[in-house]
Design a protein that fits this description.
The protein has 71 residues and is mainly alpha-helical. It is built from 3 helices and no strands. It has a domain of 45 residues. It starts with 25 loop residues before the first helix and ends with a helix.
Amino acid sequence: MNTTKKLRLGPLPKTETVKLTFTCSSSLKAELERYATLYSQTYGEAVDSVTLIPHMLEAFMAGDRGFKKCL
């Protein structure tokens, strides 16, 4: 399944990382894995959900107007 549409999350930048651990529901884990599969197919770059989660959170926070007002 290849799609010509772009996902909201674009190609991943190279960044310095720090390891965090979090707990999520099994349904969220399944959705994250499905998103990672679609991302890999869309951009031709094999990635897993663990790699995508920080970038998803950054995109979410960047788009949160209420959070930006507090900065």
